[in-house]
Specification:
The complex is a heterotrimer of chains A (145), B (360) and C (385). Chain B is an alpha/beta fold. Chain B is built from 13 helices and 14 strands. Chain B has two domains: 186 residues, Thiolase/Chalcone synthase (Peroxisomal Thiolase, Chain A, domain 1), CATH 3.40.47; 144 residues, Thiolase/Chalcone synthase (Peroxisomal Thiolase, Chain A, domain 1, 3-Layer(aba) Sandwich), CATH 3.40.47.10. Chain B is 34% helix and 24% strand. Helices cover 33% and strands 18% of the residues of chain C. In chain C, strands 3-2-4-7-1-8-11-10-9 form a nine-stranded mixed β-sheet, with helices on both faces. A two-stranded antiparallel ribbon of chain C has the order 5-6. Classes of the chains: A mainly beta (145), B alpha/beta (360), C alpha/beta (385).
Chain lengths: 145, 360, 385
C-alpha cells in the first residue's frame, strides 16, 4: 500500500495547482524545478482554470492492473487553455464520441484504489463541458411519472 | 393527524443573527436506469414502477467526487474565497470510507483547508439537512462567516428489492452565510425526532433493510407532518403562503400525499419533485429539490423544505428569497441542466457501474 | 585513438521461454557470443534490462548474471533505460572500452516478460512512463503510442490502413529469421481489422512482448583484430545517446522524437557519415507510429511523411533505406530491454554478409537505434565494416 506518494500530489490532482514562471510567465503543469521555457528556477503556484480542448486521445482496451474494471476507458492529452498539455482520463463521455478539439472541463474523480484495503486516490479527469442553456418554463414542471 | 401536546409546542430554531444561503450547487451523475429495467429483470415487466428512472453514478464517482462538484458550484454562486469557509460538512449514508472523512476530501478540493472544520454527518436521508441546520448555528452564532453543508448519496438497494427501483444518486451543496449576503434568508427551522426503526443498515452490510409498509405512516408521514405543521404553526403561516414546498422524496407518491394531507397543492410541490427523474437521492433528496426550486425562484418567494431521515426524524425550514438570487442562479449549471445531461443504461451496465459484478 | 569492435554475437530465439529464467536466458545468449569471439572472461559485463524488478522481483542483475556465467569477480552493472536499456548498455560498454580502462566487455540485453501476464504485465511495461502523471491516470505504453498515432493521423489526414506497411514489412523480413517470434505473412488488408489494444493502436500495429536475450563481445583495439572462427569484426563507428521528457505532455511537440534527432545527429557526426551513407536502419518499431516518427526525426523523411516510406517500398530489403531487416520488434519480437542488442546483432549479420536471403547488398554502414518509453531515452549507434 502506498499513502504518502499520492497524498503529496493532492493539491495538484484535486485542484490543478501548477506553477507560473515569475520571469517569463510560462504556465507550468505538472510543477517542476526549472521553467521549461526560460530555464529559470520556478516556485510560484498557479491554479489552472480546468478548461481545455482534447489534443489527442486513445481508448484503452488492454488495461493495467487496478484499471481492469474501468476498461474500455479513454485517456486524453488535453491542452489547457493556459497552454500546457496534460494527460488525463476523459469521463462522462461515450468512447465513440471523443474527438480532437472537443471542449472539456476538469472534474475531480476517483483515479484508482490502492488494492482492496488501501486508500482511494482522487484526482483530475476531464469531461465534455456541461452545456448551459436557458431554462424553458416546462423544464421546471415535470409531470409525475 | 393528532399530535401529542408536547409536539405542538415547538421551539423554533433561529440563530442569534440572521443567516441564509449565500450559494448553492447541485449535482446529478450522467447515467439513468429506467425503472422498467429493474422490473424486466425481477418481475418480468409485470406491475407498475414507482418512478420513471433513477440517476446512477459512473465508475469513477462516489459521494466525495459528487460533493466536490456541488460544492464548487456553491462557491461559484456565492462568489467568495473558499478560505472564508469555516466548516465543510457532508451528510450521506454512502460515505466512501467507513472510517475517514469525506469532508476533508471536499474541503481540500475546493481550497477551504486548513482553517476549517470538517465532519461527516449521518442520519439516513436527513444527514444533509442536519449539516444545513448546524451550519445555521455556526454562522448564526458568529463563530463563522460561511459554512458548507452538503447532502449527497450514491444509495444502494438490494438487487430485486423495492428500493432498487428508486435508490438514486445526487445531491446539493449549500454555503450558509450572513443574511445580508444571501440569496435566501432562513427564517426558521424545526426538528422532530423519535426512535423509529423503519430503515437501517447494520455495520459491514452492503445493503439496507427496511420495515416495508412500516416506513409509511409511523415513519415518513408522522415525522414530516410533525415537523412541518409545528413550524408553520410557530411561524403563523398556512400552506398557501409558500411559493414552493419540498418534502423528502423517497418515491413520487409520498411527497405529494403528505403535501395534500397538510393542504398543499400539486403545483407548489412539482418544481422540487425530482424523484421521478433521478430517483431517491437519500441525504441529497430534499436539498436537491430545494436547489431545483432556487434555480427558478423569484425574490420574495417563501419556500418550505422538510426532510425525512429514517430512524427517524424530519428537519423543516422556511426560507425567503432575496433579490440577490437572480444573478446567482446563472453562475453555475442548474439542477435541470444536470438532469437533462442523461445517458440511459441497461440493468447489465448498472450492475457493472455499481460494483455488483463479482470480479474476484 | 582506440577503436571498438564487435567480435562475437549470440542470441536466443525471441518468444515464450517457459522453462528458462532471467539468468539462464542471459547465459544462453552470452555463451555463443563468447565461443564466437574466443573469449573466456571479459573485463566487464554490461547488462541491459528494463523489467527484472517488476516482473522477476530481481534487481542487482549485473552481479547475478556475472556469477551465473562464470564471471564471478568481474566488474558488472545493470543499465536501465526502459526499452532503450540494451542500447544504453552498449553505449556504456563502448565508453568503457574507449576510455582504455576496459579492454574486453560483454554486453547482454535480457528480458524475461512472460512471468507476468495480463494487466500485471501491462503495468510493468508502463513503469517506463511517468508514474505520477501518466501511469497513475491509467495510461499504458500502448495508449501513449495511441495518443501519438491519433494525433499523427489527424494532422496528416491519414487512416489506420496507411500505417500497415511497417508491420507488413516486418513480418515479411522475419520469414527467414529462425529467431523471430512471428514468421507468418501479414496482409495489408488485414491490418486495420485487428483487435484494438489502445485505439487506434491494434494487435497488428504493436510489437509483441516476449522473452529474449542477445549478447555481444566487444574488444578495444587500434586496428581490426583477426577474425575469430571466420567472423569479421564489426566496428562501432558512431554512438549517441539523448533524452527527452519522459511524459508526452511535457514535450514541445508530441510528434517529434527530439531524442532521436539529437542522438542520431551525435552518432552521425561521430561516425563522420551522413544519412545518405546509411545502408540499413534497425529502428525500434514497437508501434508503427514509432517507425514513422523515427524515420522523420532521424532525418530520412520530412515531418508528417515518414509513413509514405512504408507505402512506397523505401523500407523494404531492396528499398532506399531497408529497416527491420530481420523482422524488427514487430515480428522478431520485442523483449523490451534486450531489443537494442538484438538490433546490433542483426546489423552485424548484415555487415558480415551473413543475413542469408535477407542480405542487403553491399551493406557497409548500418544504423541501429532503440527507444525507451515514448522516446525519453534513445541510443543510436552506427556500425561499419
Amino acid at each position: 500500500m502506498q499513502v504518502s506518494r499520492h497524498w503529496r500530489l493532492q493539491q495538484q490532482r484535486y485542484a490543478l495547482v501548477g506553477q507560473v514562471c515569475t520571469d517569463c510567465e510560462e504556465k507550468i503543469f505538472p510543477p517542476r524545478g526549472v521553467c521549461p521555457n526560460c530555464a529559470k528556477e520556478t516556485d510560484a503556484q498557479f491554479e489552472f482554470s480546468g478548461r481545455g480542448k482534447v489534443y489527442s486521445f486513445s481508448t484503452v482496451y488492454t488495461a493495467p492492473a487496478g484499471f481492469e474494471g474501468s476498461a474500455p476507458y479513454t485517456i486524453g492529452l488535453v491542452q489547457l487553455e493556459e497552454g500546457p498539455l496534460i494527460t488525463a482520463q476523459l469521463t462522462d463521455i461515450d468512447n465513440d464520441h471523443v474527438e480532437i478539439g472537443l471542449d472539456v472541463e476538469m472534474v475531480t474523480r476517483k483515479l484508482l484504489q490502492d488494492g482492496d484495503r488501501g486508500v482511494l486516490v482522487y484526482g483530475y479527469k476531464f469531461r465534455p463541458v456541461v452545456p448551459v442553456w436557458e431554462l424553458e418554463p416546462e423544464d421546471a414542471l415535470f409531470a409525475l411519472a | 393527524m393528532a399530535l401529542p401536546a408536547e409536539m405542538t409546542q415547538p421551539k423554533i430554531m433561529k440563530p442569534a443573527r440572521d443567516v441564509g444561503i449565500a450559494g448553492y450547487g447541485a449535482y446529478v451523475p450522467r447515467y439513468r436506469l429506467p425503472a422498467v429495467e429493474v422490473s424486466r429483470v425481477w418481475k418480468e415487466g409485470t406491475g407498475g414502477t414507482p418512478i420513471k428512472e433513477k440517476a446512477v453514478p459512473g465508475l469513477d464517482e462516489d459521494t466525495a467526487t459528487m460533493s466536490v462538484e456541488a460544492a464548487r458550484n456553491a462557491v461559484t454562486r456565492a462568489q467568495i474565497a473558499p478560505t472564508e469557509i469555516r466548516a465543510v460538512w457532508v451528510g450521506s449514508e454512502s460515505h466512501p470510507y467507513a472510517v475517514k472523512p469525506t469532508s476533508t476530501i471536499v474541503a481540500e478540493s475546493i481550497g477551504a483547508v486548513p482553517s476549517t472544520m470538517g465532519a461527516d454527518w449521518q442520519f439516513a436521508c436527513k444527514a444533509g439537512t442536519e449539516a444545513f441546520q448546524a451550519s445555521m448555528g455556526l454562522v448564526g452564532s458568529g463563530m463563522a462567516e460561511y459554512a458548507m453543508a452538503i447532502g449527497m448519496d450514491t444509495a444502494q438497494g438490494k438487487p430485486g428489492d423495492a428500493l432498487e427501483y428508486t435508490a438514486g444518486a445526487g445531491g446539493a451543496a449549500y454555503l450558509i452565510g450572513p443574511a445580508e449576503e444571501s440569496l435566501a434568508v432562513i427564517e426558521g427551522s424545526y426538528s422532530f425526532v423519535t426512535d423509529t426503526p423503519d430503515f437501517w443498515r447494520r455495520a459491514n452490510k452492503p445493503y439496507p433493510e427496511h420495515g416495508s409498509r412500516f416506513t409509511g405512516e409511523p415513519a415518513y408521514f408522522k415525522h414530516v407532518v410533525g415537523a412541518t405543521e409545528a413550524l408553520m404553526d410557530a411561524m403563523g403561516t398556512t400552506p398557501s403562503d409558500y411559493a414552493h414546498a419540498i418534502f423528502h422524496q423517497p418515491n413520487a407518491k409520498f411527497p405529494m400525499r403528505v403535501g395534500k394531507m397538510m393542504g398543499f397543492q400539486a403545483n407548489q410541490i412539482e418544481t422540487g419533485l425530482l424523484v421521478p427523474m433521478i430517483g431517491n437521492t437519500y441525504a441529497g433528496a430534499a436539498l436537491i429539490g430545494l436547489s431545483a426550486v432556487l434555480d427558478v425562484a423569484k425574490p420574495g418567494d417563501l419556500i418550505l423544505m422538510t426532510s425525512f431521515g429514517s430512524g427517524a426524524g424530519s428537519d423543516c425550514f422556511q426560507l425567503r428569497i432575496t433579490d440577490k438570487i437572480e444573478k446567482r442562479q446563472k453562475l453555475a449549471p442548474t439542477t435541470q441542466q444536470y438532469i437533462k445531461r442523461r445517458t440511459e443504461i441497461d440493468y447489465a451496465t448498472y450492475t457493472r457501474f455499481r460494483g455488483k459484478l463479482v470480479m474476484k | 585513438m582506440t577503436n571498438v569492435y564487435i567480435t562475437g554475437i549470440g542470441q536466443t530465439p525471441v518468444g515464450e521461454h517457459w522453462q528458462t529464467s532471467l539468468r539462464e536466458l542471459a547465459w544462453n545468449a552470452i555463451e555463443p557470443a563468447l565461443t564466437e569471439a574466443n573469449l573466456r572472461y571479459p573485463d566487464a559485463l554490461y547488462v541491459g534490462n528494463m523489467l527484472s524488478g517488476a516482473i522477476s522481483g530481481q534487481e542487482h542483475v549485473g552481479a547475478l548474471v556475472a556469477d551465473y556465467c562464470g564471471f564471478r569477480g568481474v566488474e558488472a552493472v545493470t543499465i536501465k533505460a526502459g526499452q532503450a536499456s540494451g542500447g544504453l548498455a552498449l553505449r556504456q560498454a563502448y565508453l568503457a572500452l574507449k576510455s582504455g580502462l576496459v579492454e574486453t566487455a560483454v554486453v547482454v540485453g535480457v528480458e524475461k516478460m512472460t512471468d507476468r501476464a495480463g494487466s500485471e504485465l501491462v503495468s510493468a511495461v508502463a513503469t517506463g512512463l511517468d508514474a505520477d502523471y501518466e501511469a497513475a491516470q491509467g495510461l499504458t505504453l500502448t495508449a501513449a503510442a495511441g495518443l501519438m498515432l491519433q494525433r499523427y493521423m489527424y494532422q496528416n489526414g491519414l487512416e489506420l490502413r496507411d500505417m500497415a506497411g511497417f508491420s507488413v514489412n516486418a513480418h515479411a523480413n522475419a520469414r527467414n529469421n529462425p529467431n523471430a517470434m512471428f514468421r507468418n505473412t501479414l496482409k495489408a488488408e488485414k491490418f486495420p481489422a485487428a483487435a484494438m489494444v489502445a485505439s487506434p493502436v491494434n494487435m497488428f500495429d504493436t510489437a509483441p512482448d516476449a522473452d529474449g536475450a542477445a549478447a555481444l563481445v566487444l574488444v578495444a583495439a587500434d586496428a581490426p583484430p583477426a577474425p575469430q572462427n571466420g567472423m569479421i569484426p564489426i566496428q562501432i563507428v558512431g554512438s549517441g545517446v539523448a533524452t527527452d521528457a519522459v511524459a508526452l505532455h511535457d514535450r514541445k511537440d508530441v510528434l517529434a522524437f527530439e531524442a532521436v534527432k539529437a542522438s542520431t545527429a551525435t552518432a552521425l557526426r561521430h561516425a563522420k557519415v551522413s544519412n545518405r551513407d546509411i545502408d540499413l536502419f534497425e529502428l525500434h518499431d514497437s508501434f508503427t507510429i514509432f517507425s514513422a516518427l523515427a524515420l522523420e526525426s532521424a532525418g530520412f523523411a520530412e515531418a508528417g511523411k515518414g509513413w509514405q516510406m512504408a507505402q512506397n517500398g523505401d523500407i523494404a530489403l531492396d528499398g532506399a533505406l531497408p529497416i527491420c531487416t530481420l523482422g524488427g520488434a514487430k515480428a522478431r519480437g520485442n523483449p523490451a530491454g534486450a531489443t537494442g542488442v538484438y538490433q546490433a546483432i542483426e546489423a552485424v549479420m548484415q555487415l558480415r554478409g551473413a543475413a542469408g536471403d535477407n542480405q542487403i547488398e553491399n551493406a557497409k554502414t548500418a544504423m541501429i537505434q532503440c527507444i525507451g518509453g515514448t522516446g525519453a531515452s534513445v541510443a543510436t549507434h552506427i556500425l561499419a565494416v
